[in-house]
């Protein structure tokens, strides 16, 4: 029986998996497996760099398939207008999805004592539940349930009935509702707007504080493919003495609306104490918008590393960080954090889209 395996869908997931491994006692390190799902992210050469890092004993790629990949599942998702018929179809959907996903699963999860799944709403959650394999769920992003509880929103309407059926193992619901989910790891229990069954707290700040200087340097080498280029850009940003404003982008709205959104965001938040700041843009890994030609005076960083890695660069300090929905409070290399949230987004999309938790 092997010890641990982590299923990751984003660079942030891989970062947290690394931190969780690095803070273990020395005798327990190095044997875990890291699984990188290609479903929603291009991990580029992260597999090779993770292998060289020595943090994991094995790094595996996973060609995870969404339900839309399997046409036969589509009829089972249609609303029949009858709750009983809908629930029967839901049961059939969950079971069949697990069966169809099986050929694409690259490892035998039954060989591991502890399975950690980031964002178990993805197909791997259906696969594990459908095969009665117990696992630990881990929150998708830092305090993400505080703003958007996907389990409740995806299952709005008769939620308690659905949660009861998930607890029996008849259907699958993410974020701790599945019968086969051992617990749901979150950063901060106090910020959850709804009770989350099986929720356990593992503060990210406390974990990161345990990292040694060597651990921090290892993480920067792992996640920043060209560290020298990044250092040069940041040195240039600080060289003229202007305040620096870090903008964290997100794949919001359509591309044209996104251009206008971030142009407004930068115009309204790019001045610090009356001085025009130098804008440093850190694109989200899933953001396909090319910001360099749109903002030629800005410094555009590589999007393929978790923002938390910036904390590990000695001497780096931004005057302000501005985000829409990305929680910025894990960044310590900033003096001021500006979180814009729903009110800002209401200017670009219908307000009811951003009030999902209030509707369930």
Uncertain spans:
none
- Overall pLDDT score: 92
Largest beta-sheet details: 7 strands, parallel
The SSE order reads: EHEHEHEHEHHEEHHHEHEEEHEEEH
The radius of gyration computed from the alpha-carbon positions, rounded to a whole number of angstroms, is 21 Å
Q: What share of the residues does DSSP label as strand, in percent?
A: 15-25%
Structural class: alpha/beta
For the secondary structure, the number of strands is 14
Name the helicity range: 25-40%
Q: Please count the helical segments.
A: 12
Summarize the structure.
The protein is built from twelve helices and 14 strands.
Secondary structure elements and pairings:
Blueprint: E1 2-8, H1 11-22, E2 33-37, H2 46-53, E3 58-62, H3 83-101, E4 112-118, H4 123-130, E5 135-138, H5 150-154, H6 159-168, E6 181-186, E7 199-201, H7 204-209, H8 213-223, H9 227-239, E8 244-248, H10 255-269, E9 271-272, E10 275-276, E11 278-282, H11 291-294, E12 299-300, E13 320-323, E14 337-339, H12 341-345
């Amino acid at each position: 029986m092997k010890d641990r395996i982590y299923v990751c869908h984003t660079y942030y997931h891989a970062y947290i998996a690394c931190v969780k491994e690095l803070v273990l006692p020395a005798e327990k390190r190095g044997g875990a497996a890291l699984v990188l799902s290609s479903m929603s992210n291009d991990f580029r050469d992260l597999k090779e760099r993770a292998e060289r890092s020595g943090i994991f004993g094995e790094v595996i790629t996973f060609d995870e398939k969404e339900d839309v990949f399997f046409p036969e599942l589509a009829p089972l998702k249609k609303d029949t207008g009858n709750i009983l018929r809908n629930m029967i179809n839901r049961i059939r959907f969950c079971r069949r999805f697990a069966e169809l996903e099986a050929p694409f699963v690259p490892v035998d999860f039954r060989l591991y004592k502890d399975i950690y799944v980031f964002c178990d709403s993805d197909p791997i959650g259906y696969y594990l539940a459908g095969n009665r394999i117990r696992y630990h769920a881990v929150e998708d992003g830092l305090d993400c349930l505080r703003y958007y509880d996907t389990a409740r929103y995806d299952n709005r309407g008769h939620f308690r009935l659905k949660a009861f059926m998930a607890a029996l193992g008849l259907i699958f619901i993410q974020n701790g509702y599945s019968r086969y989910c051992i617990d749901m790891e979150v950063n901060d229990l106090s910020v959850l707007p709804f009770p989350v069954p099986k929720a356990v707290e593992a503060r990210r700040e406390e974990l990161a504080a345990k990292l040694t200087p060597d651990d921090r340097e290892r993480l920067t080498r792992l996640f920043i493919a060209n560290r020298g280029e990044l250092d040069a850009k940041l040195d240039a940003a600080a060289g003229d003495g202007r305040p620096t404003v870090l903008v964290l982008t997100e794949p919001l709205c359509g591309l044209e609306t996104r251009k206008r959104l971030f142009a407004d965001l930068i115009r309204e938040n790019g001045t610090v104490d009356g001085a025009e700041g130098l804008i440093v843009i850190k694109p989200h890994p899933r953001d396909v918008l090319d910001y360099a030609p749109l903002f030629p005076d800005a410094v555009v960083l590589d999007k393929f590393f978790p923002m938390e890695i910036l904390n590990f660069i000695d001497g780096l300090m931004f005057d302000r960080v501005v985000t829409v929905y990305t929680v910025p409070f894990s960044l310590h290399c900033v003096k001021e954090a500006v979180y814009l949230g729903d009110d800002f987004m209401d200017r670009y999309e219908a307000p009811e889209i951003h009030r999902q938790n209030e509707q369930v």
